[in-house]
């Protein structure tokens, strides 16, 4: 039997983000509740066709990267997080040199292209298997002209012009050879495809996506937020394969006047069982048992979602994310919380504050509360100081006291924007 080709992804994310301004690199900037890089990683981590991920990032952000991905449940396919080199090409070469022997195909994808879809990734993989080298690209829409000293000199035929994106996919042996030759000749290219072209190999084009933008400026952030703003009606724009089929039905929120405040409450409970991870507020908590459920059974996040939906009179999580639908099996509740937050935003509401309580005899949640607040605040695009989470026991009374399950309740205040 022919062995299955193993596919590795290298995600360079070591740029300084100078064009963006601000105090942190652009790849760690917030986009809809999580970092741009985390959104990019999730696009690949959700696909069965991807076997491992290598991330190359800034030395000062290695731990931040690892912690965020761990808390979002995205570390299962991440093989390593490396310190980047001086140039993008140097960073990728470091990762290439550390790939295991059983990897046959390598994808390279920019860490600041968070809206890549599963379809584009799969097309690139299949073309790379067939031809050895493939890149995602879209036809140029604008008329492209050449100029010298501010004078037009030539108009190019745009029918033959493409805007090349990532992912770019290659047979591993071909990519290694191309990089080795580039360094032997002291040549630096603008992407990986040009290095492969330099050694005489042909690179095939697959259909990309115009939403697969590279976020390098504040204008790109604005466009990215616009893509996220259309999440509910057009989830294809989000590069999360687990959410590709989410179509929220158009629904009117409760009528109300501008500036009106509304209160919502939520409650949820799940059974503790062996063989499951314990996820609370998006944080994986070390414990011998986890909560049983169709999704990740994050009882705290479920209670908060129900409270938010209730405050806006938009039903409950069972209505929007039923446990009879296979596309929600194992899905991160934080991902669903982002959807709920977008729903409220689209109906004209902002969240004033959240107060939630986790009821559990064991384990202690106090050491994890700050991480829970940080993750939920990012998901809902709100300040951490507006979220309060606390834990309590039932003094060993009832099912929670006997350690049979964990419950959570939440209260929220929302307000119509003026």
Describe this structure in words.
The protein is of the alpha/beta class and 418 residues long. Helix content is 29%, strand content 26%. It has twelve helices and 18 strands. A seven-stranded mixed sheet has the order 5-4-1-6-10-7-11, with helices on both faces. Its cofactor is a divalent metal cation. It catalyses: 4-CDP-2-C-methyl-D-erythritol 2-phosphate = 2-C-methyl-D-erythritol 2,4-cyclic diphosphate + CMP; 2-C-methyl-D-erythritol 4-phosphate + CTP + H(+) = 4-CDP-2-C-methyl-D-erythritol + diphosphate.
What are its keywords?
single chain; about 425 residues; alpha/beta; Spore Coat Polysaccharide Biosynthesis Protein SpsA, Chain A; 60s Ribosomal Protein L30, Chain: A; seven-stranded mixed sheet; five-stranded mixed sheet; 18 strands; about 30% helix; globular
Kindly summarize this structure in a few lines.
It contains twelve helices and 18 strands. By secondary structure, the protein is of the alpha/beta class.
